[in-house]
Write a structure and sequence with these properties.
Layout: H1 2-55, H2 59-105, H3 111-148, H4 150-171
């Protein structure tokens, strides 16, 4: 019975060590929620621009729509890249926790492996944050352009309003 108490105590200590990576998983999950929400808004805007593009007869407005679509593609690429990297870093955190437990159960020296996994995880997470920053910069530049040229922005909005009106008329 005494060996069970020792094993329980050592398992409890491994659980204490494994709690820190679990908190990291919670942070990564929050980051992923932000990334996915931003990606969804980008996709929604892209769909709205596709509708505007089909009904806009004005060539100048079409140029503005295509320019924004190009920026949206860049934003989607960056957000997808950030989501992928953050997801892979979360998987690596899970591998750290598994490695800690397996190392303890099999009495293996896993310190080097855990260190390498953690370093790789942090590098991937750093790249994910960098891609997120890039996506935010593209978004900010797009909005600055819309605010500096409000006439073209309003023309796009008017086109989308008239598109909605056309859809409502066609539905009746």
């Amino acid at each position: 019975m005494e060996s069970f108490d020792i094993n329980l105590a050592t398992v409890a200590s491994v659980i204490e060590i494994a709690v820190t990576p679990v908190f990291m998983l919670v942070g990564i999950a929050g980051f992923l929620a932000v990334l996915i929400a931003r990606h969804g808004r980008t996709v929604d805007r892209s769909r709205a621009l596709q509708k505007i593009q089909t009904i806009t007869p004005d060539e100048a407005s079409l140029v503005m729509v295509r320019r924004e679509q190009s920026r949206l593609l860049r934003r989607m690429f960056l957000s997808h890249f950030a989501i992928s990297l953050a997801t892979f870093s979360a998987i690596i955190v899970c591998l750290v926790v598994v490695t800690l437990f397996v190392g303890h159960l099999l009495a293996l020296q896993v310190a080097l492996l855990v260190s390498v996994l953690f370093i790789v995880c942090m590098l991937m997470l750093s790249l994910a944050f960098s891609a997120f920053l890039g996506e935010v910069l593209v978004c900010t530049r797009t909005m600055q352009g819309a605010l500096q040229h409000p006439d073209s922005f309003h023309a796009q909005q008017d086109s989308s309003i008239s598109a909605t009106g056309l859809q409502a008329e066609n539905a009746t």
